Amino acid sequence: xxxxxxxxxxxxxxxxxxxxxxxxxxxxxxxxxxxxxxxxxxxxxxxxxxxxxxxxxxxxxxxxxxxxxxxxxxxxxxxxxxxxxxxxxxxxxxxxxxxxxxxxxxxxxxxxxxxxxxxxxxxxxxxxxxxxxxxxxxxxxxxx
Amino acid sequence: xxxxxxxxxxxxxxxxxxxxxxxxxxxxxxxxxxxxxxxxxxxxxxxxxxxxxxxxxxxxxxxxxxxxxxxxxxxxxxxxxxxxxxxxxxxxxxxxxxxxxxxxxxxxxxxxxxxxxxxxxxxxxxxxxxxxxxxxxxxxxxxxxxxxxxxxxxxxxxxxxxxxxxxxxxxxxxxxxxxxxxxxx
Lengths: 144, 185
Ligand SMILES: CC(C)(COP(=O)(O)OP(=O)(O)OC[C@H]1O[C@@H](n2cnc3c(N)ncnc32)[C@H](O)[C@@H]1OP(=O)(O)O)[C@@H](O)C(=O)NCCC(=O)NCCS
What we know:
CATH class of the largest domain in chain A: Mainly Beta
Radius of gyration of chain A: 15 Å
Distance between the termini of chain B: 18 Å
Largest sheet of chain A: 6 strands, mixed
Largest sheet of chain B: 6 strands, mixed
Structural class of chain B: alpha/beta
Distance between the termini of chain A: 38 Å
CATH superfamily of chain B: Hexapeptide repeat proteins
CATH topology of chain B: UDP N-Acetylglucosamine Acyltransferase, domain 1
Shape of chain A: globular
Bound molecules: coenzyme A
Strand order of the largest sheet of chain B: 3-6-9-12-14-15
Order of helices and strands of chain A: HHEEEEEEEEEEEEEE
Strand order of the largest sheet of chain A: 2-5-8-11-13-14
CATH architecture of the largest domain in chain A: 3 Solenoid
Structural class of chain A: alpha/beta
Shape of chain B: globular
Number of helices of chain A: 2
Number of strands of chain B: 15
Number of domains of chain A: 2
Oligomer: heterodimer
Strand content of chain A: 15-25%
CATH class of chain B: Mainly Beta
CATH topology of the largest domain in chain A: UDP N-Acetylglucosamine Acyltransferase, domain 1
């Protein structure tokens, strides 16, 4: 069973206000898919977890936009002493092993490099990489 | 540093671990927080580890092997059989944790997911007390981590970190000395 499918089922039941099922789905995601994608967090349509989302951890207050590609071992989580959690835009690509921590916003179409540690907000269309992550370049899209 | 933790009973180690996690996650050890803590991801792995440590001390080899495998199968967490941590070991999440069997650690160590603590040329890290290790960090080789240390997410630690420091980056460098009160009292 795919983690995203289980998440969507749990999320739907949570929205309908039906108890138990969301919690059950949360546990199933952990046990079957080896990742943490709680039904409390908000994930837009078309978003996918690469390689079944192995070892992905998403904070329960995090918000992820539409058509985001999340690589394996990615963490969208809190940072010690900071209450805010990441808000990810649409069409973002998050490379394997990247950690996005604390009160940061990642703009639409941004790309986050493998193993990057993102501690500051990322503007739309930016490519960031490194520990801590820095802007490598701003992509120019044909449409914009 | 690096004392032997033989004097603690299995029960006291388990309670200390769960209470430490409850304090970390909910700032309380009220029974409700304890129940919530027991249900969180990572707690099962902490318990399998303690059972494995206990079986090893009693020289119950089959049980030791069983608990080791259960941790791999149920929690995606590979902890060498000889790994020795003091009371108050907390896994905030357990997925992808790998720890070599010769690693020694003090009391109150907090690990996030995907942390690797392992050998380089057969030498292993030694950890002090009250150490926090962020998600995805790797500590390898003959390094000594002092007390009250924080290690940032995705850092790669190859050199010693003195007590009271925060280290981040690849390779990890000390970014600041912490003068705030230690994170666990
Ligand atoms: C390392 C950590 C504990 C530092 O916390 P802190 O002591 O409050 O230190 P600060 O946040 O003030 O950071 C100090 C400096 O290190 C940098 N830094 C912090 N974490 C970093 C990391 N993981 N990688 C690279 N640099 C980092 C900060 O940008 C800051 O640099 P500056 O002084 O140039 O601005 C924290 O940032 C961290 O990485 N926590 C891990 C959280 C985690 O794993 N969450 C998963 C939740 S599911």
